[in-house]
Amino acid sequence: MKIDLTVLNKKTLSDLTMVSVQAKHLGLKAYLVGGVVRDMLLGRASSDLDIVVEGNAIELAKAIASCAKAHITVYKQFGTATVVFDNGVIMDFATARSESYLNSGALPIVKPGSIKEDLFRRDFTINALAVALCADNFGELQDFYGAYQDLQRKKISVLHEKSFLDDPTRILRAVRFEARLGFQIEFKTLSLLKKALEAHVEKTVKAPRYFAEFRKFFMEAHPTTGLRRLASLKGMNFIKFGFNPDWRTLSQVEKVLKKLKRDDFYSSKDWSTTFLLAFFSRATLTQISSYAKHFHLTKSELMSLINLPGSKKILKALQTKHLRPSEIYEILDPVDLEIIYFIRATTSVNMVARRLDQFLKKWRMVSLAINGEDLKDLGCKPGRKMGALLHRLLLNKIDGKIKSHRDEIDFAKRFGAVLFKN
Ligand code: CTP
Q1: Whole-angstrom Cα distance, residue 113 to residue 99?
Q2: Tens digits of residue pLDDT in 217-243
Q3: Alpha carbon distance 270, 205 (integer Å)
Q4: Domain termination site, one of 344, 365, 386
Q5: In a designed cystine with 150, which of 17, 111, 155, 396 is the match (CB 3.0 to 4.6 A)?
């Protein structure tokens, strides 16, 4: 079956054509594989392009990079390379390989292989599709494992019985893809998944690696569906909860974000920490510090979780009537940005939402035209008082009382005279 690659944007299509031409020139066979093929067939957007090569992937990647004058990073020990094109498109190149696992959860033994073998080592049939980029069959779908049928049936199926044992993180991936795509885990796959969970296969994987896969739920547009499903399968026991995840807050975040993402300012933000905070919001500080150690939470995730209880006080302060912009700035300026975003995504109070929007989009960006050097020229001595003067200037600018460079100088002279007299 031929795939209509013209559904991809023109530049991507021309990049893939270049891969095809260069591969032919080098006597190699190249294939577009994985998530991008799945998403293309589902009519969904996908960003990065994964290319698998029967033969030396690095050689092909180098030829492409030189032809397109693109940036290349080579990972010699893995036989892979990443090419970044001018327009930001990223192409990952890997040599087709076969894998065999000695023990559950252990790293596999890897050997060069065919595209068929390479696809067989993958997690689910829907991710085990390839599109040939060879000159003689450009665009031909390579479906060895009934993947196209599973896409049509909306099923998540493993390729073989040992899949979850080989790589327990696939338990999390199955549930995440099910929720993201609105698919169902196929009957036999579900039974294998449940058995794997009962046997606690996740223990064969290092906790931070397992958590890294779990964290991807928070990067989804609608994490709650997947997380609830995982919880219902007892798939979250690895966290050893002493608390109930805060489902209400998670749903609230999803609801608010649906609207917020229509706004350009918010649509480009990564909201995963907001979801993570919502998820762990009922955990105690002792629990958080133990998760941080066990799962290697990032320093900034840990700090935000520690600061989270303070958000209640901030929310209350933001509900005070008649606050000047500078007063709102003073409340929010010292607060961790992730906490501010958390409050924005959880509040249903319009006044608070409006104030947060203005702080994030406007007041936070205000800066002075003059600096300490200018104040020195006006006769102010460097030190605490000068800092206070600059701060006062900024607050007045936020309140709109100071507009021009001239206003700043005038204010500095007037207020500086008072301040430095005492
Ligand atoms: N893969 C796998 N087992 C894993 C992780 C990944 O078999 N534990 C394979 C899958 O075939 C997947 C590919 O590696 O398609 C790339 O992984 P990843 O980028 O995580 O998957 P995508 O399908 O591209 O997912 P996303 O759309 O979330 O980027």
Answers
A1: 9
A2: 999 989 999 999 999 999 998 998 878
A3: 27
A4: 365
A5: 155
- Taking the C-alpha atoms of residue 289 and residue 173, their distance in angstroms, rounded to an integer, is 26
pLDDT in tens, 364-400: 999 998 888 887 887 777 788 888 888 999 999 999 9
Are the C-beta atoms of residues 202 and 227 closer than 8 Å to each other? no
- Give the pLDDT band of residue 418 (cuts 50, 70, 90): low
**DSSP assignment, residue 144?**
S
Span 162-172, average pLDDT = 95
**Does one domain contain both 311 and 413?**
no
Q: Could you report the per-residue pLDDT of 299-311, keeping only the tens digit for each?
A: 999 999 999 999 9
Q: What are phi and psi of 234, to 5 degrees?
A: 60, 30
Distance 27 CA to ligand 1 centre (A): 28
- Total structural domains within the chain: 3
What residue numbers bound the domain in which 350 lies?
A: 240-365
The preferred substitution site among 31, 50, 122 for testing ligand 1, maximizing ligand atoms within 8 Å of CB, is: 122
Q: Are residues 399 and 356 in the same domain?
A: no
Contact in structure between 314 and 343 (CB atoms under 8 Å): yes
Q: Among 135, 153, 171, give the residue marking a domain's end.
A: 153
Residues 127 and 333: their CA atoms lie apart, in Å, by 45
* Same domain? 358 vs 390: no
Q: Amino acid identity, residue 239?
A: I
Asked whether the beta carbons of 402 and 408 are under 8 A apart, the reply is: yes
Host H or E run for residue 30: strand 29-33
- Distance from the Cα of residue 2 to its chain's centroid: 32
- Between CA 398 and CA 378 the distance in angstroms is 23
pLDDT greater at residue 286 or residue 9: 286
Burial bucket for residue 384 (CB in 10 Å: 0-12, 13-18, 19+) = exposed
Which of 46, 117, 127, 210 is the best mutation target for the ligand 1 pocket, counting ligand atoms within 8 Å of the beta carbon and taking the most?
127
What is residue 197's predicted lDDT score, i.e. its pLDDT? Answer: 96
CA 90 to each of CA 4, 31, 75, 94: distance values in angstroms, whole numbers, following the listed order? 21, 15, 15, 13
Half-sphere exposure of 241 (CA within 13 A, CB side): 13
